[in-house]
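User: Second chain of the day. Same drill as before.
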Amino acid sequence: MLQRLILLLFGFGLAAVCRIALPAEQQPVGAPSDLADLVDRLDHSDFAVRENASRRLAEAGAAGISVLAEAAQIRSPETATRAMHVLEEHLRSNDHALFDAADDVLQGLADGDRGLVAVGAADILSRHSSLREERAIAAIRQLGGTVTFDRANASQNWWGPAPIRPDVESARRSLRPTSIVLRSDWQGGTDGLKFLRRLSHCRDLKLYVVRGSGVPLPEAQKLAAALPGLDVQERGALLGINNAPSLDPTDCAVGRVIADGPAGRAGIREGDTIRQLDGVPVRGFEDLIEKLKAYDAGKKISMTVDRMNANTKVPERLTVSVELGHWDLPELTEDAQNFLQRVQEFEAASRARQDRPEQQPTPADLIPERED
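Assistant: Same format as last time:
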């Protein structure tokens, strides 16, 4: 027993001696004063000291985020630059909490008024745009939001130029987010909107803010300053239709109908004109949207529609019962699904003709132009 006690004490003593014997620049970072001292060294006259301080601040992880933010905001250009480089290292981290904290700081710096610092932070965020957007979408989904992808236009590819010889994996990566829905089960609140802001390279994105999501419409509309072409719309329960062009703006003409959506299941067809909702006149598509905001998902309503008789060419009035649904849009649009299917066909045909390269199809043979 005495021998064990002696050995234990000897072990503690040896550890203490080893720690004391370590040079100061190799000691583990602990208290805030240690972090502040390392920030001071970022502007040291000795390059090796500056490099060592940068490395140790990076090793401090989340504990060093706040001092790095302050250093970039108020310290010398050398200190600010090194602080931002450490934050950029954190953007490459597999620790999503550390990544998220560093991203928030860099976004704040990019929005700030310290000239070169703002430019430098914006440049860092741009260099890591693909990773930021990928993780933002994962976070949006985790918080209860839904994201729908569509084919990208040639000038608006999300992940870069479309491949000359597409494969399924690269084709999927060429798809871009086209719409995001924040439903009543959205858990991110207003703070969660920061993840949408990270989709800075997405163009013409639609954001649907459903009643009960906890996100005030004006707060969502502020995202338009960061996301070019963002269309923010408030919604109630889901009906599952798009509007069609009409010469009369008071006509609520039905365009595309989601086949398995509430309207589609009730028998509403493309080309119908909605006249009444629960007996109340509907004057245009926007008026329909406003009226639907008063209804929750699961509510049954009656809809009166005019439908053109194919034989007599005279509209007939019908009344149907519709059970409104939740905003749960599919992950891929119909066009995106067709695109991926054609790419799969192209891959299969290519494999079948590997020994006959002169007969191998080209992408133009199997992948049609986008139909808008």
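The two ends are 84 Å apart (CA to CA).

User: Great, on to the next one.
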